[in-house]
Write a structure and sequence with these properties.
binds iron/sulfur cluster; alpha/beta; binds 5'-deoxyadenosine; six-stranded parallel sheet; Rossmann fold; 436 residues
């Protein structure tokens, strides 16, 4: 009995697929990377933009012939797209060969779904309207990619940015008990994981739903830093309206915390930020960037940007462009606005045509490419703490805290941290040498 899981979307989904895998393994399934060898196929889906939904529908369609050749194959669809309004009905209608479909709020029932389906071969469709709490003690089969382990700290989102479907498919914000988190991290460090990445739609609002107001994100970070061992902490995603000076200081003053901050701006125009319901201004955002650079001069800062939001004029777009040029991000993830049903922005006037969106995103990406190239060239002579991940023909591949690959020719031990000085940037690759 083999399982094949395909994951679409963000790290939250990647981690949830590890839970699905854990449950399957506890039912004696083993993993396969070949979809044709599987006795159960699971698609863990995403619906953040229309493009990904179309891709998923195409991918589900391709299962039809596999199912034809193997009548005993079980096909399960879950995740954000399955949870989104009307999608489970659509999937069933379009793809009658799908056996099990469930949403984001009841993945802990996956095992039961499989057992029941095997018993009576009745199709299962179970989409809960609301999330009710947090489920601990789900088996997890971790990917262990680059020695990283994902750890949930809060689920859901209360922000309702006007373009975003996440609050509708992930429910209201719920924070995990901090002791549960600390225990999980402790166990992972004992198992040898070198990076612990804390996950939340908005990590900065961790604890907002607790009565005890002393338990917040900064408190949690400090507690995790107290855990003994050779490991580092990362986290995503931060929200500019909630990132506090206290958190920035905590990041700055703890060696275990990676100096890597993903801080989505979405737009550089205050008018668009207001329409997006982001609850901060460009000026406030820039103050945060100044604070980060004051306390953590070598911080790696990345962002998300949406171009072509309804009402975005050329001037609004240029404000975004100029802000990117001013902040000189280390990483920019840019997206064209995509209408999501049920969101406020879906019904907004002055929708932007696709051509304009394409022109704008292209212009922005040209800028970010040149900034990245400049940054890579400027990094020559600088020292980074890296982890050795693989031996290749060119030398050892190592990875910095921010995920940059640096090729090193010295003898290294896999999964160990080293300090490496950048010696060369060529053919879009960074090369470095070991320093003591
Ligand atoms: N259209 C385009 N991009 C979106 N994002 C979220 N919703 C949409 C949408 N409707 C982007 C945001 C967010 C990232 C995860 O995806 O930039 O930060
Ligand atoms: Fe979506 Fe905004 Fe919540 Fe992020 S903070 S998940 S963009 S609603």
């Amino acid at each position: 009995m083999k399982y094949y899981i395909k994951t679409f979307g963000c790290q939250m989904n990647v981690h949830e697929s590890e839970k699905l895998a854990g449950m399957l393994e506890s039912l004696n399934y083993t993993k396969t990377d070949k979809i044709n060898d599987a006795s159960i196929i699971v698609f863990n889906t995403c619906c953040i933009r229309d493009g990904v939904e179309q891709k998923i529908l195409g991918n589900i369609g391709q299962i039809k012939k596999i199912k034809k050749a193997n009548k005993d194959l079980i096909v399960a669809i879950c995740g954000c797209m399955a949870q989104a309004d009307g999608r489970s009905e659509l999937i069933y209608k379009k793809f009658p060969f799908v056996d099990i479909i469930f949403g984001t709020h009841n993945i802990h029932l996956f095992k039961e779904f499989i057992i029941n389906f095997k018993r009576n071969h009745k199709k299962i469709s179970d989409i809960w309207k609301e999330a009710n709490g947090i489920y601990e003690n789900i088996e997890i089969s971790r990917d262990n990619l680059y020695s990283n382990a994902w750890v949930n700290i809060n689920f859901g989102c209360n922000n309702f940015c006007s373009y975003c479907i996440v609050p509708y498919v992930r429910g209201r914000e719920r924070s995990r008990n901090y002791q549960e988190i600390v225990n999980e991290v402790e166990a992972l460090v004992k198992q040898g994981y070198k990076y612990i990445t804390l996950l939340g739609q908005n990590v900065n609002s961790y604890g907002n739903d607790f009565e005890d107001k002393s338990i917040n994100f900064s408190f949690l970070l400090k507690k995790i830093c107290e855990i003994k061992g050779d490991f580092k902490i990362k986290f995503m995603t931060s929200h500019p309206k909630d990132l506090s000076e206290d958190v920035i200081k905590t990041i700055a003053s703890n060696d275990k915390i990676c100096k890597v901050i993903h801080l989505p701006i979405q737009s550089g125009s205050n008018k668009i930020l207001r329409l997006m319901n982001r609850k901060y201004t460009k000026e406030h955002y820039l103050t945060l960037i100044d604070l980060i650079r004051k306390y953590i001069p070598d911080a790696y800062i990345s962002t998300d940007i949406i171009v072509g939001f309804p009402g975005e004029t050329e001037e609004d777009f240029m404000e975004t462009y100029n802000l990117v040029n001013q902040v000189k991000y280390d990483g920019v993830f840019a997206f064209m606005f995509s209408k999501r049903s049920g969101t406020v922005a879906e019904k907004m006037e002055n929708q932007i045509d696709e051509e304009t969106k394409k022109t704008r995103i292209h212009k922005l990406l040209e800028l970010t490419k040149s900034i990245t190239k400049q940054k890579n060239e400027n990094s020559i002579g600088k020292t980074f703490n890296v982890i050795a991940i693989e031996k290749s023909e060119k030398g050892f591949l190592t990875m910095s805290d921010s995920g940059k690959t640096i090729i090193v020719n010295d003898e290294l031990e896999i999964n160990k941290f080293y300090n490496v000085e950048i010696t060369k940037f060529a053919y879009n690759k960074l090369f470095g040498k070991l320093v003591n």
